[in-house]
Amino acid sequence: MQTDLIAALDIGGTKIAGALVGEDGQLLVRAQRPTPAKENAGVVMGAVTEVLRELTAAPEWPRAAGLGIGSAGPVNASTGTVSPVNIPGWREFPLVAGVRETVGTDLPVELVGDGVAITAAEHWQGAARGRAGALCMVVSTGVGGGLVLDGRIHPGPTGNAGHIGHISVDLDGDACPCGARGCVERIASGPNIAARALSEGWLPGPDGDATARGVAAAARAGDPIALASFDRAAQALAAGIAATATLVEIEIAVIGGGVAGAGDLLFEPLRRHLKSYATLSFVSGLEVVPAVLGTDAGLIGAAAAAAQGLRLPPFATGA
Question: pTM score, two decimals?
C-alpha cells in the first residue's frame, strides 16, 4: 500500500489532538481528547493512547509513513522525553517510547517542541512558505517559537531551538517561572499583559473579562492603561525578535496565537518598536506578519517536522 500520509500528534495543556496528514497539508482523519493536565502521568498518557487508537483504527492508517509529535515543552528529542510546564505529571516522561508501544515499533517517530511544530507548519503551508530564514512565534498563555535557517526547520539537538519566550529583554525585570528574569514571556504573554494592566489600575468592563482579550477590548476603546500594556508587550517582542534576527539573520517573523488575534493593537507598536531595535543594515528590512494557519498549525507542523526529520518523501516542507 502507498505510504502517502504522516500521522501527527499535537499535545498541549488543554487538548491532545491527532490527525493523518496528506502531502498537501490536508487533515484527512482527526481525533481529539481533553488533556487531563492535573492527573498523573499514566492518566495523561492514557488520553494520548485513546487518540492514537482512534487514528490506528482508521482505514487510512496503513498509509502512514511516519509519526510526528509536537508537544508543549521543554522536550528532549534525543531521549524522547517531555517535561511540559503545563502538565506537571510529566517530568522526563518517555513519550516517544509510549507512543511506539501503541502504534508499533516499526513506525518512525519524530519529536519536536510545539513552537518548532508551528514553525514547520507556517514554513510548509503558511506565511513563511519559501523563506530561507524565519522566526515563527506563538504569543498566547506563553510565548514560544522556532527557527527556519537555510530553508530548513532548525529544531536543534533537543527539539527546542528558537524558544524566544525565554530570551531576557529586561535585565532587572520580574522573575520568570523558568528561573530567569525579564523574559519575553514574562512581559508579552496574554496573562502578563492582563496582569500588568490590572497592576496599573485598569478595571475590566461590565462583562468582567480580566484577560488579555478584555484588555484588548479596552485598548480598542482608547483606554490608556490597556494601550500601554499592549505597547509594553510589543516592545518586549520587538527586542526579542531583533536579537534573534541579529544572531541568525532571519528575514521574516511570523506571529500567531491568541494575543496576535488583537491585530493592529499588537502589530502596529511591534513594528514601530522594531525600528528602534533592528537597526543594523542586515536586519533593518525584517518583515513581521501574522500567522495564517490557525488552530490546525500544530498538527500540520508535527507532520512537516516529521517529514523533514525523517526524510520522508514525497512531502515537501516549503524549502
Answer: 0.87
* Nearest Cα residue to 135 out of 186, 85, 184, 73: 184
pLDDT in tens, 15-66: 999 999 998 889 999 999 999 999 999 999 999 999 999 999 999 999 999 9
Residue 123 maps to a domain: no
Does any domain span residue 318?
A: no
150 in any annotated domain: yes
Among the listed residues 145, 193, 197, the one whose alpha carbon sits nearest the alpha carbon of residue 166: 145
Measured distance CA(259)–CA(305) in Å, rounded = 25
Does one domain contain both 52 and 147? no
Residue 93 φ then ψ, to 5°: -75, 135
Q: Which residue has the cell 507512543?
A: 99
CATH code for position 260:
3.30.420.40
pLDDT digits (tens, 9 = 90+) for 109-154: 999 998 899 999 999 999 999 999 999 999 988 898 999 999 999 9
Question: Which amino acid is it at 5?
Answer: L
Sequence-ordered list of residues with C-beta below 8 angstroms from that of 284, at least 6 positions apart, any chain? 278
Identify the domain containing residue 178 by its residue range.
130-291
Amino acid at 265: L
Q: Tell me, yes or no, whether 35 lies in a domain.
A: yes
Cα–Cα distance measured from residue 219 to residue 310, given in angstroms and rounded to the nearest whole number: 45
Do residues 263 and 135 share a domain? yes
Does residue 204 have a cis peptide bond before it, meaning omega lies within 30 degrees of 0?
A: no
What confidence tier does 318 reach under pLDDT thresholds 50, 70, 90?
very low
Report d(CA 158, CA 160) in Å as an integer: 6
Instruction: Extract the C-alpha cell encoding 56.
Output: 490506528
Residues 144 and 263 in one domain: yes
State mean pLDDT over 231-255: 97
